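Narrative of accomplishments. A recurring question from our advisory board has been how the design workflow behaves on a single, concrete structure rather than in aggregate. To address it, we present the structure tokens for one chain from the evaluation set, followed by the sequence designed for it. No filtering or post-editing was applied between the two.
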């Protein structure tokens, strides 16, 4: 085993053997968000920033975490303690030639969409050059894994302990959706939320996913979020 593969193996074994994991599945309607992104991407490109859906998802998750602190916490069974984080640092799972790494986007709840997009560009560059520092890989309070960049819809991601939850996003696809009495074709983003059932109950997980979906459905809320 390489050093990084051994580290991944140990972390996954720790999670699998200590965390009673549950996964909730849902879909977010990102039709309006995609229209907004398409209208804005050239402005970002002029500044050297590639505007994908991820900055919006990260901001939505960050705002939802502030309202649902159990998913932005860590649990210590030996001490019988729960630590609720006063910060929202989002770990971004990145597939590199050396293996999976999870660099952290700091203070995502206080960052604007352009700031998050710039942060993702920096992460992408570091992934290409395998130049992550140890500090960049520490301090996350929640993790997002983007399976859709490669392919796939739903999955059951493993919680990145000592975090209490992880969100996997699949590849968005057009689907028929009943709205009122009509069937419309909408662009839907598949979401898979795994969480530590020792601390996070199903109702809390559902409220968190509902909040994320609400932000993605109405992207103007993300731009005005404070």
């Amino acid at each position: 085993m390489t050093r990084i593969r051994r580290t991944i193996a140990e972390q996954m074994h720790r999670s699998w053997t200590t965390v009673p994991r549950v996964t909730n599945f849902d879909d977010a309607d990102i039709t309006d968000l995609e229209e907004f992104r398409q209208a804005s991407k050239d402005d970002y490109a002029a500044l050297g920033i590639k505007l994908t859906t991820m900055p919006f998802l990260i901001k939505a998750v960050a705002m939802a975490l502030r309202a649902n602190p159990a998913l932005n916490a860590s649990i210590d069974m030996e001490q019988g303690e729960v630590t609720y984080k006063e910060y929202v640092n989002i770990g971004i799972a990145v597939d590199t030639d050396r293996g999976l790494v999870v660099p952290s986007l700091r203070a995502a709840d206080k960052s604007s969409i352009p700031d998050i997009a710039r942060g993702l560009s920096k992460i992408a560059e570091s992934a290409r050059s395998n130049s992550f520092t140890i500090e960049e890989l520490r301090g996350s309070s929640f993790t997002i894994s983007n399976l859709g960049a490669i392919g796939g819809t739903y999955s059951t991601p493993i919680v990145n302990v000592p975090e209490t939850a992880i969100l996997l996003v699949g590849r968005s696809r057009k689907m028929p959706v009943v709205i009122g009495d009509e069937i419309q074709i909408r662009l839907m983003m598949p979401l898979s939320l795994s969480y530590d059932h020792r601390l996070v109950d199903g109702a809390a997980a559902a409220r968190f996913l509902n909040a994320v979906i609400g932000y993605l459905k109405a992207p103007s809320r993300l731009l005005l979020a404070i």
